[in-house]
Amino acid sequence: MISSPTLVAPKRARGRPRKTEHERDDGNRRQALISAAAQLFKLQGYDATSTREIAAKVGMQSGSPFYHFGNKQDLLLAVMVEGMKQAIARQLAACGQATPNQSARERLRSLIRHHFDVLLGPDSDFIPVMLYEWRSLAPAQRKVITELKDDYEAAWIPVLQALQDSGQLQAPVGLARLMIFGALNWSVQWYEAPRQSGKAKRASLDDLTDTALQLFLRDTA
After folding, report:
1. Which 3 state secondary structure label does DSSP give 30?
2. How far is CA 152 from the centre of its chain?
3. Which of 52, 68, 69, 215 could be bridged to 75 by S-S, CB 3.0 to 4.6 A?
């Protein structure tokens, strides 16, 4: 009599279970929702934008956003967090390019130029949404953004202190920081980027940066 072969269970793969195609795409789908929400919140406003519109913009079912976010307010928070994290990472990269002999004035110019790029440059939907829709967040959500904002602005304090020590900045550092950010952030309300064609010459981001330095600092030369 021939015995039947013994069935051996397949070995289990080590490590984490392999994700399904849907699970692997979750991160991309979530990011797509955040980007679409940022664009629509900036263009239409938070209150005037529905989750159905956001889902449609990225080709999802109307209820799909709620798989990734508890409600529209959570999606708004995600937009702001994404914007601040991008701004911090890009600012760190900009600061990392500074040379040891770079003056405090040059460092402030780099910070201002980077900030204008965050506010007004390509892919600049996120931070304007934060400026426009701050009051739409719950108090606990505002605390999350405030902590990220404090991290971002911390890089400016030693630069402003060095400028005050040299006499180029005459205002108190803490108050100057608030006034500078208030002035820079307001540019999202009125700035129009230069057109490639047309008679009217509009200011570039470099032009804005140079003008800001002239307003905030005095020339000690």
Report:
1. helix
2. 10
3. 69
Q: 82 near 34, Cβ under 8 Å?
A: yes
Alpha-carbon span 112 to 172, nearest angstrom: 18
Tokens of 89: 């990472």
pTM of the model: 0.81
Kindly report the average pLDDT of the chain as a whole number. 86
Residue 203 is encoded by which pair of tokens? 């200011």
Map out the domains of the chain with their CATH numbers.
80-216 (1.10.357.10)
Q: Taking a C-beta distance cutoff of 8 angstroms, is the pair 181, 157 a contact?
A: no
C-alpha to C-alpha distances, 168 to 126, 173, 218, 219, 220, nearest whole angstrom: 32, 12, 5, 6, 6
CB-facing half-sphere around the CA of 172: CA atoms within 13 A: 3
- How many distinct helices (H) and strands (E) make up the chain? 11, 0
* Residue 83 structure tokens: 């914007």
69 has a pLDDT exceeding 60: yes
Q: What is the rounded distance in angstroms from the CA atom of residue 165 to the CA atom of residue 111?
A: 18
Amino acid in position 58: V
Residues 98-120 have pLDDT tens digits of 788 899 999 999 999 999 999 99
CA geometry: angle 120, 125, 129, nearest 5 deg = 105
